[in-house]
Write a structure and sequence with these properties.
It contains five helices and five strands. By secondary structure, it is of the alpha/beta class.
Length: 146
């Protein structure tokens, strides 16, 4: 049984499909869970709503989190992740279309581990996703996963 888990939080169906397909096609060694808005992401992380009863001690190895989300912004999700002892140490990668310096500063100040701009080019997007999964799953030693 795989003990690694990636939470992908993305509302754009095309970006979501591309990210998940890229991870799956390149043999990602983790379970992939998808949330399409900020509220759904928090429900999964904290075992609420349709995820009630989930073992919340199994937190993601890392979270790919879009900044601009419906219901609850990625920045709000990040702040909640950092404020809860269950998820405070989970690496969070902001994967966003925004290249605004103010967004980047706000994310890092709120505890993001990485800020990655989504490329428009399909090839570049898949390459970035592959690099992210390789680093966060294979290279990085995460205290959250221990």
């Amino acid at each position: 049984m795989n003990d690694k888990l990636i939470l992908v939080v993305e509302d754009n169906p095309d970006h979501l499909e591309l990210a998940v397909l890229t991870l799956e096609e390149h043999g990602v060694s983790a379970e992939i869970v998808v949330a399409r808005d900020g509220a759904e992401a928090l429900d999964f992380l904290f075992g609420q709503g349709r995820h009630a009863g989930r073992d919340t001690h199994k937190q993601p190895t890392f979270i790919l989190l879009d900044l601009k989300l419906p219901k609850l912004s990625g920045l709000d999700v990040l702040r909640r992740v950092r404020s809860n002892p269950l998820s405070a140490l989970v690496p969070v990668v902001m994967l966003t279309s925004s290249s605004e310096r103010s967004d980047m500063v706000a994310c890092y100040q709120s505890g993001a581990n990485s800020f990655v701009c989504k490329p428009v080019d399909f090839g570049e997007f898949t390459q970035k996703i592959n690099r992210l999964q390789a680093y966060w799953l294979d290279v990085n030693e995460s205290v959250a996963a221990v």
